[in-house]
User: Fold this.
Amino acid sequence: MAAMWIALTNDADEATVRRELQGLGLWATPAADGGEVTGLFVAEQSQAVDDAAIRAIPGVAAVSRPKSATPQLDRQAGRDVTVAGWTFPADPADTGLPLLIAGPCAVESRDQVAAVAAAAARHGARWLRGGAFKPRTSPYSFSGHGESALRWLREAADAHDMAVVTEAMGESHVDLVAGYADIVQVGSRNMQNFALLAAVGASGKPVLLKRGMAATIADWFASAEHLLAAGAGPVVFCERGVTGFDPTTRNLLDLAAVAQLRHVHRLPVVVDPSHATGRRDLIAPLARAGIAAGGHGVVVEVHPDAREALSDGPQSLSFGELAGVASAIGLPAAPRTPPPTRPIPHPESPAARV
Ligand code: PEP
Ligand code: MN
Assistant:
């Protein structure tokens, strides 16, 4: 909800008008002109209410809203949006199956991503994630296998008819990433890298826009506007936790932001409990919470052996834990794998030559 200005009639009782507004869920503060209150300013924190309901309050002369700072995003809001074959319904009451996006933090090898893709597909994931270019706090940490990783990721996704989402970390490799990805990810640390946003937008690809760790919702929307203004496909928002104050979790998952995006702004939004918590034991409950708050889906990190992960091991799920998360968000259980059949010995093998 954008800020709003309410002009009062000359005979208005300002306190009564404010009480009525409060009844509608609007938080108004008086704006005085030379000591005389001539209008009320409604803060961003207020609920979305039709102008007609406000104009009906005795003492209200007019309601005006500042011009939207995000006209392109406004066009996307309130509509069903289809990205890489998945439709994100605008109507919050439309609670179909959630989108599961799963994959390793970093694509470490061809075998690793192939194994994760198979497990992810088996448990209902439709989009495969994985970093080829990794933003790392330390310059000495593993920073991704670059184009080889993009190739392995694409191959693994294609084997299971999944879409690829992967991060473009710098302007110089946007075209390379866009050549392999169905959806380009803009990471938290780059949410306000405006040159990168322009380059990603110019690729015309849909974007998974992760929220900056100290970004307001208005900042997040402004970044989406940069992408859309530059030509991006639809923008899917990803809440991945904001900087908190308690060291027991990596970040603070802002579920109110998820609810606002879905219920108020009617935009596509997914929740990343992996980066929000940094701990695999909290992923299933927060995935459920994210969906309950209105998230269209969840993004989770998975690794065949988290002990060996080159990044984000503590938050990476095993394949068994992934099954638990999929079921926690209501996806149907994967079919049981048939017991392995005893291999038929080759006629030339020693076992056949008894
Ligand atoms: C990621 O999803 O790989 C990642 C680095 O996350 P974030 O940008 O949210 O920290
Ligand atoms: Mn990660």
Summary: The pocket of manganese (II) ion (ligand 2) is lined by residues 105, 275, 301, 311-312 (CB under 6 Å).
